[in-house]
Amino acid sequence: MFEQEVRRTLEYIARGMAVRIVAAPGGGRTTVTQKVIAEFEKGGVTVYSISGLRSHRRVPFGGIHSLGQEIRVGQLGVLGVADVLASRLTKPGERVLVVDDLEYVDPESIAVLDAVRRRTRRPMIVTMTESSLYTKGRVPLLGLGPEARVHLNPLRYEQVNELMTEVLGTPADADATARVLAKSAGNPRLIVRIAETAALSGLLARRDGQWHMTNDTLWNEHLHSTVESLLEGLEADELTGLQTMAIAGTASIDVLQQVIKPDVLDRLEQRGFISVIDSGHNDISLAITPPVISDYFRGERMLTTRRVLANRITRTLSAEPQESNASASSGDSLTRVLAALRVERSSGDAATARHFHEQTAILERHRFELWDADRSVSNAAALLRVYWGSPIDASRIEQVLTSTPTADGDSGELLFFAISKALWAIYSGKGLDHAAAVLRSFAKEHPRRSAEADAFELFINASYDRMPQDLDQVLERLHERRPGSSVIASVQAILELYRFNPTGALAAVESSRDPGINPGIEPFIRGMAMFSLGRFEDAVVLALDKRAEARRDLDQFGVVSSTYVAAHALSYGGYLDEADYLMGSVFAMGRPGFLMDSLYDAMLRLAGLRTAASTIEPTITLATQARRQTEEAGPLPGMGKGVYNLVAGRPLVPAVFDRQAAYLVKGQLQRGYVLEAAQSALFLTCLLPGRKTLDLLREALRDHSITAHEQLLEIAATVVKEDHQSLDALLKKYKPDADLYHVRMLLRGAFKRYAFVDDSIGAAAMERAYLLFSARFPSSVEPLAFNSGSYSPLTVREIEVAALAGHRTNPEIAEHLGLSIRTVENHISNALRKTGSPTRSALFELVRDSLPFR
Predict the structure, then answer these.
(1) What tens digit of pLDDT does each residue of 73-123 get?
(2) Which alpha helices (DSSP H) does 511-595 contain, by range?
(3) Which residues, including other chains, have CB under 8 Å from residue 266's CB and lie 6 or more apart?
(4) In 3D, which of 430, 436, 468, 467 has the Cα closest to residue 453?
(5) Among the listed ranges 228-242, 276-290, 815-829, which one has the minimum average pLDDT value?
(6) Cβ contacts of 683-687, under 8 Å, gap ≥ 24
(7) Predicted confidence band of residue 586 (pLDDT cuts 50, 70, 90)
């Protein structure tokens, strides 16, 4: 065994070359080295051999001490030791340096060997694993001169049979040999250990002169230390990755990347723990190697301790094949897109962001080169389309906008060029007047397209200033001037969203089959219209499907716009973690261009809301990364900074909060941004209920015939009226709808409303209502709420005990509620402390109306 590798090594050394012997741990490196040393010694060659030990890699000069040359390190240091060793190597005769397991040799010994090698040029043999190239970088000992590489391949079937015969004394049958080969992946050390421990455990038995398997497995408890020695030095995420692969089994690389981060897979492959299987049709699968590691992680004890991981992987992998067979119903579609999103989350977004950057940079450079060679409007428009969604190169935009002749060209491309120029004026801070002047100049030069230029001027004024009072008349005149224009239809659809007319927005989209300004506008409008109508599940499904398409097409405009819709809809439905992941994946791509920049800022503020509400002290959130010159009000949810500023300001006195919230909503309404006003009022009402804000919300929904929130509005009305009896009745008959999460948020906000004014009775009633509602509709997601940092409410059980404490003894309460006397004492003590009540009677008076006796 290894005779060919030994012979090749000797031949290379004879030529004066260094030799690097590479194999996996246990792959036979030491065996080959020992055989080579034996051959040298037979020929009278003096061998200076260093053996690296895992336990000695941090022991200074440990490798030098293993030489057995009685070199006294003392005060010599690296160069002094190198002088001594070099003097011995330069003596007459053939002398060879051998370093076994280079990765485990201490740095001081490597430094000595480096100096000695440079001085003596004696031939050297080094053994190492492939992984050491990735973990330690290039070792100084290597590459100093001519070097040969000897790779030790895994043992073949016949070699495994030979080795097993040597270890066990007699041959094994075909099944046993094949099984040992499969489990060991041909690793000599594992072959020996598996065979020995299987015989020790009775899993191999000798019969008729051969060893046979007595069970369908060779895994046994005596192999634990062997496998653990292989795994030593792995990072925690690498160990988890191997366990994940063990649970998943052999799977395609696309599936595995959904449950294991790509960089973890890369590291495992570099360390030699992953084998790549090409199953044809461009389908690449991955599996653990050697497979005995899978047996180790699949052991009963290991899976028991990591049951959560096993369940997560099972859910993830089982969700994958269901996508193509998903039902068309809204609920099934929502389950499908959320399952796909959760699978995506496990792979991280850094790789995707990097891929977008690389591919967008290639596209942008290519289109700029085309424009630079031919500065036509067509080439300019193609380049500017990149900047509508992707990061902007300001110098190139300025160059294109100022150096492109516009005397000739297609009128549609000239319009797009003018619109881009107007958007750049706003983006770069030149202001609305400058942008409007660009569009008016275009309209004057191209009368046939003037209506569309005027429509876009209407759009930018509505987006960055306020909605016109006579919008219907203006739109009617524009349609008369340019019937059937997709640009005008797109502008109208967006403005209908602004003023909270989602059905009108959908009708405008349907009126034109042309994509208009940008192909990504239509799905954005449809998604926002569904969101506005209360069809949150439909909005999530559409947005995530469009986002998936945009990711595949490397369309950052589509990714950002669909993510904005999905993030708002998911947040409303209580899927906060999923919404945060989506927004994080956009943030990882960097700030996008033109219109998408406003949506990007809106998502930064949305992502910062949870932190702003939950932290007690002022803190920096993602919202601080948004552009600061934004107005308090904006045309779409989050595009104005008013809601975030109000929440971050934390006016926790309910009357003050309600007054400021109502003032904000009125400002949004005055500028014509009814959709943002309605969503702001709904969110702020649920966060900390107030009568003024609720009235504005009900009025906005009623005026625009939105009936999706009727149950929520009824519950909110009883909350602000402090009608606990009616509230209980409404909660009992509540039928789950898209507002379920916000009802929970409303009840939590109602509790805070009482807590902030130290109304213990009202707070206890709201706490009871919230807990009963949560018990009826359980959820693992805590609703967004202000964190007061001081008020500690009574639990339902504490209220029950307190309500009995005024007229019953502790033993009687314990018997009545089925508790121990000690538990009753603890509940009363806690209730007295939390409420500040001086006596049991005072405590009873405080809570007696909050919960009926049992």
Answers:
(1) 766 788 888 888 888 888 888 888 888 888 888 888 888 888 888 888 788
(2) 521-532, 536-552, 556-573, 576-587
(3) none
(4) 436
(5) 276-290
(6) 683/643, 684/643, 684/646, 684/657, 685/661, 685/716, 685/746, 685/749, 686/712, 686/716, 686/742, 686/745, 686/746, 686/749, 687/613, 687/647, 687/745, 687/749, 687/784, 687/785, 687/786
(7) confident
Helices 307-319 and 330-345 sit at what angle, rounded to 10 degrees?
120
C-alpha 270/C-alpha 135 separation (Å) is 9
CA distance 253 to 238: 16
Let me know: does 486 contact 527? Beta carbons within 8 Å.
Answer: no
- What would the mean pLDDT of 755-772 be, rounded to a whole number? 86
Closest CA to 78 of 94, 93, 97, 63: 63
- Tell me what pLDDT residue 145 has: 74
Say which DSSP state 172 is in.
Answer: B
Residue 731's pLDDT band, with cuts at 50, 70 and 90, is: very high
Q: 208: burial class by Cβ within 10 Å (0-12, 13-18, 19+)?
A: exposed
CB–CB of 758/583 below 8 Å? no
Q: What is the tally of helices (H) and strands (E) in the chain? A: 43, 10
Nearest to 549 by CA among 574, 524, 580: 524
Query: Residue 153 has what DSSP assignment?
Result: P
Separation of alpha carbons 102 and 86, rounded Å: 19
Question: Comparing C-alpha atoms, which of 179, 160, 182, 186 is closest to residue 171?
Answer: 160
pLDDT band at 134 (very low <50, low <70, confident <90, very high): low
Q: Give the integer Cα–Cα distance in Å for 656 and 753.
A: 11
Query: What are residue 151's DSSP bridge partners?
Result: 22
The tokens for 746 are 């409303």
User: Of 50, 58, 104, 55, whose CA–CA distance to 81 is shortest?
Assistant: 50
Looking at residue 648, its amino acid is A
| 311 dihedral zone (left: phi>0; alpha: psi -120 to 50; beta) | alpha
Cα angle 344-347-352, degrees, rounded to a multiple of 5: 80
Q: Which residues contact 149 (CB under 8 A, 6 or more apart)?
A: 19, 20, 22
What would the two tokens of residue 486 be?
A: 């997709």
> What's the mean pLDDT in 245-274?
81
What local confidence, expressed as pLDDT, does residue 97 receive?
86
**Contact in structure between 383 and 418 (CB atoms under 8 Å):** no
The pLDDT tens digits of the residues spanning 167-179 come to 898 888 877 887 8
Beta bridge partners of 22: 128, 151
**pLDDT confidence tier of residue 843, bands split at 50, 70 and 90:** confident
AA identity, residue 752: K
How many CB atoms are closer than 10 A to CB 827? Answer: 23
C-alpha to C-alpha distance for 500 and 531, rounded to whole angstroms? 11
The torsion defined by the Cα of 72, 76, 77 and 79, in degrees rounded to 10, comes to -110
- With beta carbons less than 8 A apart as the criterion, state whether 389 and 592 touch: yes
What percentage of residues in the chain have a pLDDT greater than 90? 35
Full-model pTM = 0.60
* Position 466 confidence tier, pLDDT thresholds 50, 70, 90: very high
Rounded Cα distance between 762 and 755, Å, is 8
> b or e along 268-295 (b: 16 or more beta carbons within 10 Å of the residue's beta carbon)?
bbebbbbeeeeeeeeeebbbbbbbbbbb
Rounded distance between C-alpha atoms, residue 526 and residue 519, angstroms: 12
Backbone angles phi, psi at 188, to 5 degrees: -55, -45
| Model confidence at 355: pLDDT above 80 | no
Kind of pairing, strands 204-207 and 210-213?
antiparallel
138 burial class (0-12, 13-18, 19+ CB within 10 angstroms)? exposed
8 Å CB contact between 559 and 586:
yes
In which band, very low, low, confident or very high, does the pLDDT at 618 lie, cut at 50, 70 and 90? low
